[in-house]
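Students often ask why we bother encoding 3D structure as a string. The short answer is that it lets us treat folding as translation between two languages. Here is a chain of 429 residues written in the first language.
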Amino acid sequence: MRLHNPLWTEWTLAMRFLFDNRMQTLLISLGIAIGCAVIVFITALITGLQANVVQRTLGTQAHIRILPLDEFNHVQPGKPAEWTLQLDNPRAQRLRSINNWQEVRDLLDQDPQLRAVSPLISGPALARRGQARASVVLLGIDPERYSQIIPLADDLLAGSLNIQAGHVLVGTELAKDLGLRLGDKLRLDAGEGREAIVEISGIFSLGVRELDTRNVYLDLKQAQTLLNLPGGVSVIETTVGQIFQADEIAQRLGRLTGLQAQSWMVSNGQLLNALASQSMTTQMIRIFVGISVAFGIASVLAVSVVQRTREIGILRAMGSPRGQILRVFLLQGGLLGLLGSLAGSILGWGLVQVFNLLGPKLFIIPLPPDLIPFAILIATLTGTLAAAPLLFDLFSLLPNSPAFEPPYDEMVRTAMCRTCPSPSATTLA
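And here it is in the second language, the structure alphabet:
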């Protein structure tokens, strides 16, 4: 019964053609496997690198910062029919407070696209211990909310997340410069006579030298007193679920709150360009490797078509339609792509594991769950489509209509039998 099934016939012929030239099939499968392994490994490597860079960058900052509007000089209009020349220098931006920050905070808490909202007050100060001095940035925070933005507890090297009144957290570099240890006293001078003596309750490391040198975390109320912003905050920080939609969300939040909203995509423009360049590089590698695989499959199939010209002619003379012959070689190309991509996917997965185990261990390469199925699908489609142009060229040399329509079993027997006599010899007999 199955001999009369066209699909089984085409499958049988395709497998026979592949096994007749085992070395040829092995070499092209190896080439496809190497190409597929390159696609899998390079894609996973670039993805892991991008994720690591984004994590290291955004792990120490908010995705969107809500700030007060900038201050501008107001120039009085001149009298009608008069010309006025006036030098207008940009206005110096003083430390300002968001007056209604509680309302803004509660409003942002209701936004479904925001994962965390935290008020913050920041400003410059001078840290002194004995004769040692250092310029620092005071960061007054709400520990419970701010930990959802930056997990300070995970970055602590010593001490605890205790920033109650009179207690602060300092970075490792600042502690090294000033000779600070847990329990030591530190004087903070914010200018204009606003000073406070605080105790070191924790030492952290954010992994960025600049931040570990200048950041000092303290209680929100104490920061308000030192920076002369009673009851106010200077910024509201937020995080979003989709980091690459931060700019769009920031524009919407700016219109919603009437304040200035800055996304990490604006403040880290060079990083964004680097990520875009890496993604473009990955796509180019995929395209060129795919083209190489397609040409490799096409070259093998071209040789196979030439070698099978006699069988193709016999099938056409015996009634096999062009579409069936085309499907045989399309199936052959698809099988080459499938077998090669399966082996290449296993090889690519192995390379990823070797990198994670024996590599520099600066970051871990994740393997996206859809990467291997995608590579297999692309290789299979590439192998299938690579055969089509060859068959169309061959068909132009063959008769348009078959002589007659024999049974499928006779077609298969004739095409697969190497010792069968040619049609002309049968006629003469």
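Translate back mentally: Residues 401-412, 422-429 have pLDDT under 50 and may be disordered. Keep this in mind for the problem set.
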